[in-house]
Protein backbone atom coordinates (compact mmCIF):
# COMPACT_ATOMS: atom_id res chain seq x y z
CA UNK A 1 0.00 0.00 0.00
CA UNK A 2 1.26 3.46 -0.93
CA UNK A 3 0.18 6.79 0.53
CA UNK A 4 0.11 9.68 -1.93
CA UNK A 5 0.27 13.25 -0.67
CA UNK A 6 -1.72 15.16 -3.24
CA UNK A 7 -0.69 18.77 -2.69
CA UNK A 8 -3.26 21.28 -3.82
CA UNK A 9 -1.38 24.35 -2.68
CA UNK A 10 1.05 25.31 0.07
CA UNK A 11 -1.68 24.96 2.70
CA UNK A 12 -3.84 22.01 1.66
CA UNK A 13 -3.10 18.39 0.89
CA UNK A 14 -5.14 15.19 0.59
CA UNK A 15 -3.71 11.87 1.72
CA UNK A 16 -4.78 9.00 -0.53
CA UNK A 17 -3.90 5.45 0.49
CA UNK A 18 -3.54 3.53 -2.77
CA UNK A 19 -3.30 -0.21 -3.37
CA UNK A 20 -2.35 -1.33 -6.86
CA UNK A 21 -3.93 -4.69 -7.69
CA UNK A 22 -2.31 -7.24 -9.93
CA UNK A 23 -5.32 -6.98 -12.19
CA UNK A 24 -6.90 -3.63 -12.70
CA UNK A 25 -10.41 -3.29 -11.37
CA UNK A 26 -13.28 -1.59 -13.02
CA UNK A 27 -16.50 0.02 -11.91
CA UNK A 28 -17.37 3.67 -12.11
CA UNK A 29 -20.10 6.20 -12.05
CA UNK A 30 -20.39 8.76 -14.76
CA UNK A 31 -23.33 10.78 -15.82
CA UNK A 32 -24.64 12.07 -19.09
CA UNK A 33 -27.38 14.57 -19.75
CA UNK A 34 -29.57 12.32 -21.79
CA UNK A 35 -33.22 13.31 -21.91
CA UNK A 36 -35.92 10.63 -21.86
CA UNK A 37 -39.53 10.94 -22.82
CA UNK A 38 -42.22 9.68 -20.49
CA UNK A 39 -43.65 6.41 -21.70
CA UNK A 40 -47.37 5.68 -21.51
CA UNK A 41 -49.14 2.41 -20.93
CA UNK A 42 -51.72 1.60 -23.56
CA UNK A 43 -54.35 -1.11 -23.35
CA UNK A 44 -55.85 -2.54 -26.51
CA UNK A 45 -57.84 -5.68 -27.07
CA UNK A 46 -59.70 -7.31 -29.91
CA UNK A 47 -61.01 -10.11 -27.71
CA UNK A 48 -64.57 -10.52 -26.58
CA UNK A 49 -65.16 -9.03 -23.17
CA UNK A 50 -65.51 -12.28 -21.24
CA UNK A 51 -65.57 -12.52 -17.45
CA UNK A 52 -61.81 -12.79 -16.88
CA UNK A 53 -61.07 -10.16 -19.46
CA UNK A 54 -63.61 -7.86 -17.88
CA UNK A 55 -61.80 -7.97 -14.55
CA UNK A 56 -58.61 -6.92 -16.35
CA UNK A 57 -60.40 -3.92 -17.89
CA UNK A 58 -61.89 -2.80 -14.58
CA UNK A 59 -58.66 -3.25 -12.65
CA UNK A 60 -56.75 -1.31 -15.32
CA UNK A 61 -59.25 1.53 -15.08
CA UNK A 62 -58.93 1.55 -11.29
CA UNK A 63 -55.13 1.62 -11.60
CA UNK A 64 -55.28 4.55 -14.02
CA UNK A 65 -57.76 6.36 -11.80
CA UNK A 66 -55.61 5.84 -8.73
CA UNK A 67 -52.52 7.07 -10.62
CA UNK A 68 -54.43 10.17 -11.70
CA UNK A 69 -55.37 10.96 -8.11
CA UNK A 70 -51.78 10.48 -6.96
CA UNK A 71 -50.52 12.81 -9.68
CA UNK A 72 -52.79 15.47 -8.19
CA UNK A 73 -51.05 14.99 -4.87
CA UNK A 74 -53.90 13.19 -3.10
CA UNK A 75 -53.21 9.83 -1.53
CA UNK A 76 -56.01 7.44 -0.52
CA UNK A 77 -55.73 4.50 1.83
CA UNK A 78 -58.34 1.76 1.53
CA UNK A 79 -59.24 -0.46 4.47
CA UNK A 80 -58.88 -4.19 3.82
CA UNK A 81 -62.60 -4.74 4.29
CA UNK A 82 -63.29 -2.38 1.39
CA UNK A 83 -62.02 -4.97 -1.11
CA UNK A 84 -65.22 -7.02 -0.76
CA UNK A 85 -67.16 -3.85 -1.49
CA UNK A 86 -65.22 -3.34 -4.70
CA UNK A 87 -65.87 -6.95 -5.73
CA UNK A 88 -69.60 -6.41 -5.25
CA UNK A 89 -69.33 -3.33 -7.43
CA UNK A 90 -67.57 -5.27 -10.19
CA UNK A 91 -70.08 -8.12 -10.00
CA UNK A 92 -72.90 -5.59 -10.30
CA UNK A 93 -71.35 -4.08 -13.39
CA UNK A 94 -70.88 -7.55 -14.89
CA UNK A 95 -74.62 -8.09 -14.93
CA UNK A 96 -74.86 -5.31 -17.47
CA UNK A 97 -72.81 -7.35 -19.95
CA UNK A 98 -74.12 -10.86 -19.28
CA UNK A 99 -75.01 -11.47 -22.93
CA UNK A 100 -71.70 -12.19 -24.69
CA UNK A 101 -73.16 -12.17 -28.18
CA UNK A 102 -74.01 -8.48 -27.88
CA UNK A 103 -70.38 -7.62 -27.25
CA UNK A 104 -69.37 -8.55 -30.79
CA UNK A 105 -71.03 -5.34 -31.91
CA UNK A 106 -68.43 -2.51 -31.67
CA UNK A 107 -71.12 -0.01 -30.71
CA UNK A 108 -72.21 -2.19 -27.82
CA UNK A 109 -68.61 -2.58 -26.69
CA UNK A 110 -68.13 1.20 -26.66
CA UNK A 111 -71.41 1.65 -24.79
CA UNK A 112 -70.27 -0.81 -22.14
CA UNK A 113 -67.04 1.19 -21.65
CA UNK A 114 -69.08 4.36 -21.22
CA UNK A 115 -71.39 2.70 -18.68
CA UNK A 116 -68.44 1.21 -16.78
CA UNK A 117 -66.60 4.53 -16.79
CA UNK A 118 -69.62 6.48 -15.50
CA UNK A 119 -70.38 3.93 -12.77
CA UNK A 120 -66.75 3.83 -11.64
CA UNK A 121 -66.55 7.61 -11.58
CA UNK A 122 -69.76 8.02 -9.55
CA UNK A 123 -68.93 5.21 -7.15
CA UNK A 124 -65.33 6.24 -6.65
CA UNK A 125 -66.34 9.86 -6.12
CA UNK A 126 -68.73 8.72 -3.39
CA UNK A 127 -66.06 6.48 -1.90
CA UNK A 128 -63.62 9.36 -1.64
CA UNK A 129 -65.78 11.02 0.99
CA UNK A 130 -65.91 7.79 3.01
CA UNK A 131 -62.32 6.60 2.55
CA UNK A 132 -59.76 7.69 5.14
CA UNK A 133 -57.22 10.13 3.68
CA UNK A 134 -54.74 12.71 4.81
CA UNK A 135 -53.13 15.79 3.35
CA UNK A 136 -49.56 15.22 2.28
CA UNK A 137 -46.86 17.31 3.90
CA UNK A 138 -44.17 19.17 1.99
CA UNK A 139 -41.71 16.41 2.88
CA UNK A 140 -44.12 13.75 1.55
CA UNK A 141 -44.41 15.67 -1.72
CA UNK A 142 -40.62 15.75 -2.19
CA UNK A 143 -40.51 11.99 -1.63
CA UNK A 144 -43.32 11.50 -4.15
CA UNK A 145 -41.51 13.71 -6.64
CA UNK A 146 -38.44 11.46 -6.36
CA UNK A 147 -40.61 8.34 -6.65
CA UNK A 148 -42.32 9.64 -9.80
CA UNK A 149 -38.98 10.59 -11.37
CA UNK A 150 -37.70 7.03 -11.02
CA UNK A 151 -41.07 5.59 -12.05
CA UNK A 152 -40.99 7.47 -15.35
CA UNK A 153 -37.30 7.34 -16.21
CA UNK A 154 -35.72 4.18 -14.79
CA UNK A 155 -34.71 1.60 -17.40
CA UNK A 156 -35.83 -1.50 -15.47
CA UNK A 157 -39.61 -1.41 -15.29
CA UNK A 158 -39.61 -4.37 -12.90
CA UNK A 159 -37.76 -2.09 -10.46
CA UNK A 160 -35.50 -4.93 -9.35
CA UNK A 161 -38.44 -7.33 -9.06
CA UNK A 162 -40.55 -5.31 -6.61
CA UNK A 163 -43.91 -3.57 -6.74
CA UNK A 164 -42.95 0.06 -7.17
CA UNK A 165 -46.47 1.30 -6.31
CA UNK A 166 -46.63 -0.79 -3.16
CA UNK A 167 -43.25 0.53 -2.08
CA UNK A 168 -44.55 4.10 -2.41
CA UNK A 169 -47.61 3.35 -0.29
CA UNK A 170 -45.65 1.55 2.43
CA UNK A 171 -43.02 4.29 2.56
CA UNK A 172 -45.60 7.06 2.96
CA UNK A 173 -47.23 5.10 5.78
CA UNK A 174 -44.15 3.93 7.63
CA UNK A 175 -41.09 6.04 6.84
CA UNK A 176 -40.55 9.11 9.05
CA UNK A 177 -40.55 12.28 6.93
CA UNK A 178 -40.80 15.06 9.48
CA UNK A 179 -37.57 16.81 8.50
CA UNK A 180 -35.68 17.28 5.25
CA UNK A 181 -32.93 14.95 6.41
CA UNK A 182 -35.48 12.22 7.20
CA UNK A 183 -36.99 12.71 3.74
CA UNK A 184 -33.56 12.40 2.12
CA UNK A 185 -32.94 9.23 4.14
CA UNK A 186 -36.25 7.79 2.89
CA UNK A 187 -35.32 8.61 -0.72
CA UNK A 188 -31.88 7.02 -0.33
CA UNK A 189 -33.50 3.90 1.12
CA UNK A 190 -35.92 3.77 -1.81
CA UNK A 191 -33.15 4.16 -4.39
CA UNK A 192 -31.08 1.47 -2.66
CA UNK A 193 -33.83 -1.10 -3.34
CA UNK A 194 -33.00 -0.84 -7.06
CA UNK A 195 -29.52 -2.26 -6.43
CA UNK A 196 -28.09 -0.05 -9.18
CA UNK A 197 -24.82 1.76 -8.31
CA UNK A 198 -25.36 4.21 -11.16
CA UNK A 199 -28.76 5.42 -9.87
CA UNK A 200 -28.11 7.71 -6.89
CA UNK A 201 -29.75 10.44 -4.83
CA UNK A 202 -27.92 13.77 -4.85
CA UNK A 203 -28.26 16.32 -2.09
CA UNK A 204 -28.25 19.94 -3.31
CA UNK A 205 -24.51 20.39 -2.71
CA UNK A 206 -23.68 17.15 -4.49
CA UNK A 207 -25.88 18.01 -7.45
CA UNK A 208 -24.13 21.36 -7.78
CA UNK A 209 -20.73 19.66 -7.56
CA UNK A 210 -21.70 17.13 -10.23
CA UNK A 211 -22.80 19.84 -12.62
CA UNK A 212 -19.57 21.78 -12.13
CA UNK A 213 -17.71 18.89 -13.73
CA UNK A 214 -19.67 19.27 -16.99
CA UNK A 215 -18.65 22.90 -17.39
CA UNK A 216 -15.24 24.39 -18.02
CA UNK A 217 -13.96 24.03 -14.46
CA UNK A 218 -13.46 21.10 -12.13
CA UNK A 219 -13.22 21.18 -8.35
CA UNK A 220 -11.22 18.41 -6.76
CA UNK A 221 -7.96 16.55 -7.26
CA UNK A 222 -8.70 15.60 -10.86
CA UNK A 223 -9.83 12.00 -10.32
CA UNK A 224 -12.66 10.08 -11.93
CA UNK A 225 -13.56 7.43 -9.38
CA UNK A 226 -15.97 4.51 -9.21
CA UNK A 227 -16.67 1.14 -7.66
CA UNK A 228 -14.65 -2.01 -8.38
CA UNK A 229 -16.35 -4.39 -10.79
CA UNK A 230 -18.81 -6.79 -9.19
CA UNK A 231 -17.00 -10.02 -9.95
CA UNK A 232 -13.80 -8.83 -8.24
CA UNK A 233 -14.81 -9.83 -4.71
CA UNK A 234 -11.29 -9.34 -3.38
CA UNK A 235 -11.37 -5.59 -4.01
CA UNK A 236 -12.98 -3.11 -1.66
CA UNK A 237 -13.04 0.64 -1.51
CA UNK A 238 -13.06 2.76 -4.66
CA UNK A 239 -11.22 2.50 -7.96
CA UNK A 240 -9.49 5.20 -10.02
CA UNK A 241 -11.03 5.27 -13.49
CA UNK A 242 -8.76 8.04 -14.73
CA UNK A 243 -6.62 10.93 -13.50
CA UNK A 244 -7.11 14.19 -15.38
CA UNK A 245 -3.89 15.18 -17.20
CA UNK A 246 -2.18 18.01 -15.36
CA UNK A 247 -4.42 17.68 -12.30
CA UNK A 248 -3.13 17.27 -8.75
CA UNK A 249 -3.68 13.48 -8.69
CA UNK A 250 -1.96 13.05 -12.04
CA UNK A 251 1.01 15.08 -10.83
CA UNK A 252 1.20 12.88 -7.73
CA UNK A 253 1.54 9.75 -9.87
CA UNK A 254 -1.87 8.14 -9.36
CA UNK A 255 -2.79 5.81 -12.22
CA UNK A 256 -5.95 4.40 -13.77
CA UNK A 257 -6.93 1.17 -12.00
CA UNK A 258 -5.42 2.11 -8.63
CA UNK A 259 -7.62 1.28 -5.65
CA UNK A 260 -8.33 4.07 -3.15
CA UNK A 261 -8.58 2.36 0.24
CA UNK A 262 -8.53 5.52 2.39
CA UNK A 263 -8.90 9.29 2.10
CA UNK A 264 -7.23 11.30 4.86
CA UNK A 265 -6.96 8.07 6.93
CA UNK A 266 -10.71 7.36 6.59
CA UNK A 267 -11.39 3.99 5.01
CA UNK A 268 -13.37 3.88 1.77
CA UNK A 269 -14.56 0.31 2.30
CA UNK A 270 -18.18 1.38 2.88
CA UNK A 271 -17.87 4.97 1.65
CA UNK A 272 -20.37 6.08 -1.00
CA UNK A 273 -18.87 7.51 -4.14
CA UNK A 274 -20.42 10.95 -3.60
CA UNK A 275 -19.09 11.14 -0.05
CA UNK A 276 -15.65 10.35 -1.43
CA UNK A 277 -16.04 12.99 -4.14
CA UNK A 278 -17.04 15.56 -1.53
CA UNK A 279 -13.90 14.81 0.50
CA UNK A 280 -11.82 15.44 -2.62
CA UNK A 281 -13.34 18.86 -3.34
CA UNK A 282 -10.39 21.18 -2.70
CA UNK A 283 -8.90 22.89 -5.71
CA UNK A 284 -10.54 24.65 -8.65
CA UNK A 285 -8.90 23.42 -11.86
CA UNK A 286 -9.42 25.09 -15.22
CA UNK A 287 -10.48 22.49 -17.74
CA UNK A 288 -9.60 22.96 -21.38
CA UNK A 289 -10.86 19.68 -22.85
CA UNK A 290 -8.60 19.74 -25.93
CA UNK A 291 -4.89 19.94 -26.56
CA UNK A 292 -3.45 19.76 -30.08
CA UNK A 293 -0.07 19.59 -31.75
CA UNK A 294 1.49 19.05 -35.20
CA UNK A 295 3.80 16.03 -35.45
CA UNK A 296 6.22 15.17 -38.24
CA UNK A 297 6.33 11.62 -39.66
CA UNK A 298 10.07 11.27 -40.15
CA UNK A 299 10.00 11.43 -43.96
CA UNK A 300 11.88 14.69 -44.29
CA UNK A 301 10.83 18.30 -44.01
CA UNK A 302 8.40 17.91 -46.88
CA UNK A 303 6.89 14.69 -45.51
CA UNK A 304 3.28 14.40 -44.38
CA UNK A 305 2.24 15.96 -41.08
CA UNK A 306 0.01 14.44 -38.40
CA UNK A 307 -2.43 16.44 -36.33
CA UNK A 308 -2.55 15.17 -32.75
CA UNK A 309 -5.69 15.96 -30.69
CA UNK A 310 -5.96 15.03 -27.01
CA UNK A 311 -9.56 15.09 -25.72
CA UNK A 312 -9.67 14.86 -21.92
CA UNK A 313 -13.41 15.19 -21.17
CA UNK A 314 -16.81 15.70 -22.75
CA UNK A 315 -17.86 18.95 -21.13
CA UNK A 316 -20.20 21.47 -22.71
CA UNK A 317 -17.41 22.98 -24.79
CA UNK A 318 -15.86 19.73 -26.07
CA UNK A 319 -17.33 19.52 -29.58
CA UNK A 320 -16.58 23.18 -30.31
CA UNK A 321 -13.02 22.77 -29.05
CA UNK A 322 -12.43 19.69 -31.23
CA UNK A 323 -13.80 21.47 -34.28
CA UNK A 324 -11.53 24.46 -33.62
CA UNK A 325 -8.49 22.20 -33.15
CA UNK A 326 -9.12 20.48 -36.49
CA UNK A 327 -9.39 23.78 -38.32
CA UNK A 328 -6.17 25.04 -36.70
CA UNK A 329 -4.28 21.85 -37.61
CA UNK A 330 -5.62 22.03 -41.16
CA UNK A 331 -4.10 25.48 -41.55
CA UNK A 332 -0.78 23.80 -40.71
CA UNK A 333 -1.23 21.37 -43.62
CA UNK A 334 -1.72 18.14 -41.66
CA UNK A 335 -2.50 15.04 -43.74
CA UNK A 336 -3.91 12.75 -41.03
CA UNK A 337 -5.11 12.84 -37.42
CA UNK A 338 -4.60 11.06 -34.11
CA UNK A 339 -7.46 11.41 -31.61
CA UNK A 340 -6.32 10.49 -28.10
CA UNK A 341 -9.15 9.29 -25.83
CA UNK A 342 -6.94 7.59 -23.24
CA UNK A 343 -8.06 8.24 -19.65
CA UNK A 344 -11.09 10.18 -20.89
CA UNK A 345 -13.82 9.01 -18.50
CA UNK A 346 -16.68 10.61 -20.45
CA UNK A 347 -19.11 13.38 -19.59
CA UNK A 348 -22.01 14.76 -21.56
CA UNK A 349 -23.68 12.25 -23.85
CA UNK A 350 -24.76 14.87 -26.46
CA UNK A 351 -21.16 16.06 -26.81
CA UNK A 352 -20.04 12.52 -27.64
CA UNK A 353 -22.65 12.37 -30.40
CA UNK A 354 -21.70 15.81 -31.76
CA UNK A 355 -18.00 14.94 -31.91
CA UNK A 356 -18.80 11.73 -33.79
CA UNK A 357 -20.65 13.84 -36.36
CA UNK A 358 -17.48 15.88 -36.89
CA UNK A 359 -15.58 12.80 -38.12
CA UNK A 360 -18.32 10.85 -39.92
CA UNK A 361 -19.71 11.47 -43.40
CA UNK A 362 -22.81 9.42 -42.60
CA UNK A 363 -23.95 6.46 -40.54
CA UNK A 364 -25.36 5.36 -37.20
CA UNK A 365 -23.56 6.71 -34.14
CA UNK A 366 -25.29 4.83 -31.32
CA UNK A 367 -28.45 2.88 -30.55
CA UNK A 368 -30.30 3.73 -27.35
CA UNK A 369 -32.05 0.71 -25.85
CA UNK A 370 -34.35 0.02 -22.95
CA UNK A 371 -35.83 -3.20 -21.58
CA UNK A 372 -37.94 -3.59 -24.74
CA UNK A 373 -35.12 -3.12 -27.26
CA UNK A 374 -33.98 -0.22 -29.43
CA UNK A 375 -35.77 2.96 -28.42
CA UNK A 376 -33.87 5.60 -30.34
CA UNK A 377 -31.17 5.91 -32.99
CA UNK A 378 -28.60 8.68 -33.24
CA UNK A 379 -27.10 9.00 -36.71
CA UNK A 380 -25.64 11.61 -39.01
CA UNK A 381 -26.11 12.62 -42.63
CA UNK A 382 -22.74 14.35 -42.91
CA UNK A 383 -24.04 17.91 -42.66
CA UNK A 384 -21.92 18.53 -39.54
CA UNK A 385 -18.84 16.75 -40.85
CA UNK A 386 -15.51 18.59 -40.74
CA UNK A 387 -12.91 15.83 -41.16
CA UNK A 388 -14.45 12.73 -42.73
CA UNK A 389 -11.74 11.72 -45.21
CA UNK A 390 -8.22 11.99 -43.69
CA UNK A 391 -6.68 8.87 -42.07
CA UNK A 392 -7.61 8.72 -38.37
CA UNK A 393 -6.16 6.77 -35.45
CA UNK A 394 -7.99 6.69 -32.11
CA UNK A 395 -5.98 5.88 -28.98
CA UNK A 396 -7.89 4.11 -26.17
CA UNK A 397 -7.14 2.42 -22.85
CA UNK A 398 -8.96 1.10 -19.80
CA UNK A 399 -9.62 4.67 -18.66
CA UNK A 400 -11.62 5.34 -21.85
CA UNK A 401 -15.21 5.22 -20.66
CA UNK A 402 -18.84 6.23 -21.26
CA UNK A 403 -19.13 9.01 -23.87
CA UNK A 404 -15.57 8.20 -25.00
CA UNK A 405 -16.67 4.65 -25.74
CA UNK A 406 -19.69 5.88 -27.68
CA UNK A 407 -17.38 7.96 -29.87
CA UNK A 408 -14.76 5.22 -30.26
CA UNK A 409 -17.41 2.60 -31.07
CA UNK A 410 -19.03 4.82 -33.69
CA UNK A 411 -15.72 5.52 -35.43
CA UNK A 412 -14.66 1.87 -35.35
CA UNK A 413 -17.94 0.28 -36.52
CA UNK A 414 -18.33 2.81 -39.34
CA UNK A 415 -14.76 1.97 -40.41
CA UNK A 416 -13.83 5.61 -40.09
CA UNK A 417 -10.88 5.06 -37.74
CA UNK A 418 -8.39 2.45 -36.56
CA UNK A 419 -8.43 1.90 -32.78
CA UNK A 420 -5.06 1.37 -31.11
CA UNK A 421 -4.47 0.59 -27.44
CA UNK A 422 -6.16 -1.70 -24.92
CA UNK A 423 -9.80 -2.66 -24.23
CA UNK A 424 -11.86 0.25 -22.94
CA UNK A 425 -13.58 0.51 -19.59
CA UNK A 426 -16.98 -0.97 -20.51
CA UNK A 427 -19.69 1.38 -19.28
CA UNK A 428 -22.71 0.78 -21.48
CA UNK A 429 -25.34 2.50 -19.32
CA UNK A 430 -26.66 6.03 -19.71
CA UNK A 431 -27.78 8.21 -16.83
CA UNK A 432 -29.85 11.37 -16.73
CA UNK A 433 -29.65 13.87 -13.91
CA UNK A 434 -33.02 15.19 -12.70
CA UNK A 435 -33.34 18.16 -10.37
CA UNK A 436 -36.07 18.04 -7.73
CA UNK A 437 -38.02 21.08 -6.58
CA UNK A 438 -35.89 21.63 -3.45
CA UNK A 439 -32.58 21.68 -5.34
CA UNK A 440 -31.66 18.06 -4.71
CA UNK A 441 -31.54 15.59 -7.57
CA UNK A 442 -31.45 12.06 -8.86
CA UNK A 443 -28.99 10.45 -11.25
CA UNK A 444 -31.07 7.73 -12.89
CA UNK A 445 -30.08 4.96 -15.30
CA UNK A 446 -32.44 5.66 -18.18
CA UNK A 447 -31.07 3.45 -20.94
CA UNK A 448 -28.22 1.34 -22.22
CA UNK A 449 -26.52 1.80 -25.55
CA UNK A 450 -25.21 -0.37 -28.34
CA UNK A 451 -22.57 0.51 -30.91
CA UNK A 452 -23.53 0.74 -34.62
CA UNK A 453 -22.71 -2.99 -34.94
CA UNK A 454 -25.21 -3.70 -32.11
CA UNK A 455 -22.45 -4.53 -29.64
CA UNK A 456 -23.35 -4.19 -25.96
CA UNK A 457 -20.04 -3.14 -24.41
CA UNK A 458 -21.20 -2.96 -20.77
CA UNK A 459 -18.54 -4.53 -18.49
CA UNK A 460 -16.69 -5.70 -21.63
CA UNK A 461 -15.42 -2.59 -23.36
CA UNK A 462 -14.45 -1.95 -26.97
CA UNK A 463 -11.65 -4.14 -28.32
CA UNK A 464 -9.06 -2.12 -30.31
CA UNK A 465 -7.71 -3.17 -33.70
CA UNK A 466 -4.05 -3.04 -32.61
CA UNK A 467 -2.21 -2.84 -29.29
CA UNK A 468 -0.06 0.19 -28.57
CA UNK A 469 3.70 -0.20 -29.09
CA UNK A 470 5.84 -0.82 -26.03
CA UNK A 471 6.48 2.20 -23.79
CA UNK A 472 4.14 4.45 -25.69
CA UNK A 473 4.05 7.82 -23.86
CA UNK A 474 1.04 9.84 -22.76
CA UNK A 475 2.53 13.32 -23.15
CA UNK A 476 2.28 15.13 -26.48
CA UNK A 477 5.99 15.71 -26.97
CA UNK A 478 6.93 12.10 -26.40
CA UNK A 479 4.09 10.95 -28.64
CA UNK A 480 5.36 12.97 -31.58
CA UNK A 481 8.70 11.20 -31.23
CA UNK A 482 6.94 7.83 -31.58
CA UNK A 483 5.46 8.98 -34.87
CA UNK A 484 8.64 10.49 -36.29
CA UNK A 485 11.38 8.03 -35.33
CA UNK A 486 10.95 4.70 -37.14
CA UNK A 487 13.80 3.20 -35.09
CA UNK A 488 12.03 3.89 -31.80
CA UNK A 489 10.50 0.99 -29.84
CA UNK A 490 7.28 2.99 -29.59
CA UNK A 491 7.06 3.76 -33.32
CA UNK A 492 3.35 3.91 -34.13
CA UNK A 493 3.28 3.80 -37.91
CA UNK A 494 4.84 0.35 -38.45
CA UNK A 495 1.78 -0.90 -40.32
CA UNK A 496 1.29 2.37 -42.22
CA UNK A 497 -1.81 3.35 -40.24
CA UNK A 498 -1.32 6.99 -41.13
CA UNK A 499 -0.81 6.54 -44.86
CA UNK A 500 -3.53 7.20 -47.40
TrEMBL record:
Function: Protease involved in the C-terminal processing of the chloroplastic D1 protein of photosystem II. This proteolytic processing is necessary to allow the light-driven assembly of the tetranuclear manganese cluster, which is responsible for photosynthetic water oxidation.
Family: Belongs to the peptidase S41A family.
Record bears the keyword Methyltransferase: no
One Pfam family named in its UniProt record: PDZ_6
Subcellular location: Plastid, Chloroplast thylakoid lumen
Protein's UniProt name: C-terminal processing peptidase
InterPro entries: ClpP/crotonase-like_dom_sf, PDZ, PDZ_6, PDZ_sf, Peptidase_S41A, Tail-specific_protease
Amino acid sequence: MVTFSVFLNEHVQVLLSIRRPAKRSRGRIDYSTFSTEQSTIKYTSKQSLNSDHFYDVVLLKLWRLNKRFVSRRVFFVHKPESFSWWRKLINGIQKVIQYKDRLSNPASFISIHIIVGVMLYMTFSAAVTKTPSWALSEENLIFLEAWRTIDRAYIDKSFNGQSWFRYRENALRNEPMNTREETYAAIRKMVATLDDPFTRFLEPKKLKSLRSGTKNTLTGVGLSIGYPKEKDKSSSGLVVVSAAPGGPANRAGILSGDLIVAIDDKTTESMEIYDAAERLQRERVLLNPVKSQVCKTGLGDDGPLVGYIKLTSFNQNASGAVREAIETLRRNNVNSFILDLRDNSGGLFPEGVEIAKIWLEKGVIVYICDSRGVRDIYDTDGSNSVASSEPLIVLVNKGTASASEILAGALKDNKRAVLVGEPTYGKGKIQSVFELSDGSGLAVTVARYETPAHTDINKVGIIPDYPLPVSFPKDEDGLCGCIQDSASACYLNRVQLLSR
